[in-house]
């Protein structure tokens, strides 16, 4: 096992310096590994719509310079002196947070994503000691072993990267609200999150319907395991499916007419929001009361559940559908995500830092 070095190291990174600024190739410092730290050579980083919301300050003011990226897959290159969970050469991932208080009731319950002191986000945040965090659009990262996931054999690193956010963000609510045989589940929006929702809900045995703006991606949706596919631009979809679903998971990054979607739930049905558009949403209490419906939200998943999700994906042969891009194509890719022109996740090949800029 290679000895951990005691100095910080420089990593290549894509940096944006403001909400309307393009990316530039630059370098950042990664801390020297502490006793429980794992140093990861990043191989692939997924592009999540949350990167764009934050990088463009759609969720309020952000910290710049910013290196986004919380769908990270790579190989362990060094370990601190007391690391027991990982060894050099292991295939690993990092998701949306890199630390949490470890003491609050939610952390103790393995729900670190709801840490009462606030978990430490992988980027656009600060460590508890005040150091800014930088994400996965970079060649390496140093993370405490307790916040690192193992990527099982059988799932390639490029298709694994998006599981670290998109995968767990759908797996967690589908589990919590018991998607499975006999349950009618709708996934709204078939982008990065949505297409993983279709695959996971189908693998859990639910009857899966995609509600997409148009039927242009119907063939893909059915290939991913959807039983039905409807266009939400067609008014008749809402008449035909009124009162139909037990569970609807909304992955849309823009505001939707919520009452119309609540109307698709049957008795005791639940609409879960995982998409987080900027601004406020509104709905009528009647839309809930009439059929004892619930409306809820869900945020990524804890470390234990994220590992369960990765193992589940390996067992069922699931990975993300990806378009691999170079580090110089990220600005264009962000625009394409905003235009719903993504099939179904952009993944940055971090080795392209090694090639000269276009
Ligand atoms: P994405 O790849 O852009 O997918 C969003 C999909 O929503 C699009 O592909 C499109 O699907 C649909 N859509 C977009 N604009 C729409 C509009 N104006 N009206 C109706 N449908 C529209 O984004 P993503 O990475 O999956 O992320 C989706 C949302 O989830 C973002 O807001 C993101 O910040 C949030 N998120 C939340 C969590 C969490 O923990 N809760 C985690 C990750 C991401 P169709 O073309 O099929 O209609
Ligand atoms: Zn994300
Ligand atoms: Zn906590």
TrEMBL record:
InterPro entries the record matches: ADH-like_C, ADH-like_N, ADH_Zn_CS, CAD-like, ER, GroES-like_sf, NAD(P)-bd_dom_sf
Domain Enoyl reductase (ER), first and last residues per copy: 18-348
A UniProt-annotated Pfam family: ADH_N
Region Disordered: start-end pairs: 1-22
GO molecular function: alcohol dehydrogenase (NADP+) activity; zinc ion binding
Bias kind Polar residues: ranges: 1-10
Family, similarity comment: Belongs to the zinc-containing alcohol dehydrogenase family.
EC number: 1.1.1.2
Keywords associated with the record: Metal-binding, Oxidoreductase, Zinc
Main EC class the enzyme belongs to: oxidoreductase
SUPFAM superfamilies: GroES-like, NAD(P)-binding Rossmann-fold domains
Protein name in UniProt: alcohol dehydrogenase (NADP(+))
Required cofactor(s): Zn(2+)
Reactions catalysed, as given in the entry: a primary alcohol + NADP(+) = an aldehyde + NADPH + H(+)
PANTHER family reported in the protein's UniProt record: ALDEHYDE REDUCTASE
Secretion signal span: none
SMART domains per UniProt: PKS_ER
Organism expressing this protein natively: Nocardioides scoriae
